[in-house]
Specification:
Blueprint lengths: L1 H78 L1 H13 L6 H11 L1
């Protein structure tokens, strides 16, 4: 009977050790999960900053280039190329007295 008590005491010690190992493993797992969550938060933050910079640079580039684009557009309209290009389809379908070379020369004179 004393042998059975000794075996039970040894099993209890073994179970206690297994519980200690499980607790240590759980704590280690918890620490790793917290580090992963922290890394995920930082990643989300930097991804947000990245897109803010991309959008900001795009808007800034638009406002920087916009005066040059407006100047080119006005030059395009003053040159008469926009009218001659839009009229090219309609003039080719109708009978016209001017030759294609004459309209090109007129366009160059307007420049």
């Amino acid at each position: 009977m004393n042998g059975d008590a000794h075996d039970t005491h040894g099993e209890i010690d073994e179970l206690k050790e297994l519980v200690r190992q499980a607790v240590a493993l759980g704590e280690e797992n918890n620490n790793l999960l917290r580090k992963m969550r922290r890394a995920e938060k930082w990643s989300s933050f930097f991804r947000f900053i990245y897109w803010i910079i991309i959008i900001g640079l795009s808007v800034g580039a638009f406002y920087f280039i916009q005066p040059y684009a407006a100047a080119l557009e006005s030059l395009w309209q003053r040159s008469g190329l926009s009218g001659s290009i839009s009229n090219a389809g309609s003039s080719s379908s109708s009978a016209s007295t001017t030759t294609p070379g004459q309209s090109f020369e007129n366009t160059l004179k307007n420049l």
